[in-house]
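Complex 401.
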Amino acid sequence: MLQLPVYLDNNATTPCDPRVVTAMLPYFTEIYGNAASRSHPFGWAAEEAVDYAREQVAQLIGADPKEIVFTSGATEAVNLAIKGVYEMYASKGRHIITAVTEHKAVLDTCKHLEKLGASITWLPVNQEGLINLSTLEAAITPQTILISIMYANNETGVIQPIKAISDIARKHEVLFMTDATQAVGKIPVNVNTDGIDLLTLSAHKIYGPKGVGALYVRRRAPRVKLVAQIDGGGHERGMRSGTLNVPGIVGLGKSCELCAAETATDTQRILPMRNRLEKALLALEQSYLNGGDAPRLPHTCNVSFKYVEGEALIMSFNKMVALSTGSACTSASLAPSYVLKAMGISDDQAHASLRFGLGRFTTNEQIDYAIHIITEAVNNLRSTSPIWEMYKDGVDLDTIA
Ligand SMILES: *Cc1c(COP(=O)(O)O)cnc(C)c1O
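Predicted structure with pyridoxal-5'-phosphate bound:
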């Protein structure tokens, strides 16, 4: 029997893989030492577990374990990276380049710095959600200290041309950071071949626990320096103080190990399901795949059903299928997604969009069910919609206020 509701909101968060939970459990009850306690075996065992997790995380992204700083999640890692670079390199310049479709963690951090005197260039994106490389290069000045462009977008799955961006950053000797929270563990990410200087990731997007993540900080060519944003004790090489969340870190390590071993086979299973879902939904009249022509994450799609209100649509089936319109962080507000709007998508179409996030535990049966429920919901809402009727009568709705 299908368990309801079907969960298709894996870009908001993923369930913990049971193997991750199993790995974490001893660190609550038996191996409970403080990883900073150097004077006895309880502390040594905890420290050993943290070191091992650091290797597991580093391995997944091709880094050195010394380049991994554990944090409470990607939001904190983003804050540490951007604010830490800003404080460290302010004497060189105060200019940061980012894009309008970034996650709120990046946008709000940059806005905060803007108030403190930073100059921020907010790059636009094209219809597919991609930044323009010439625009990026033209924005660089001698005062530019950081380029922060996300690896893959959480709402559309659109993947930015990371290598090309890092080539430009290198050429101008500007640090390149990427919020890779949605990409790590889903597609191959390698800090060296991709030319990344700072990278953020989060356990709860890759079948690990909530409240733990990491920042990658390059140590060689170039050696990136940061000003700590949380002081007190000098943990994590002075970059992030505070007693380490040992069970969480063990969980993050295990989830990275599982991703390194299983992502390729997971994708072989998930991608055909995602494509089948897309095809079925696009077969409906006036439905659109947002970012559909750009390279995209294999487990994500964002589909608009014109002349249907997205929130009403979700409300009509959310006891059966769980997903969101736009991102979890902004779905509290009824404003249309700023990501879709930045892609030039009309308010109407942005309001009518659903984001699907498939995952490791998604089944074909669940996808069949979701297709059925959503098709029915769209047709139902349209059958009672005066706007749909007008559209069917040939009224040009775009010209009506
Ligand atoms: C989820 C997410 C974050 C925030 O991660 P947390 O660990 O929840 O703080 C940042 N960026 C992107 C792209 C995300 O998807």
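The chain has two domains: 6-12+263-399, 18-258.
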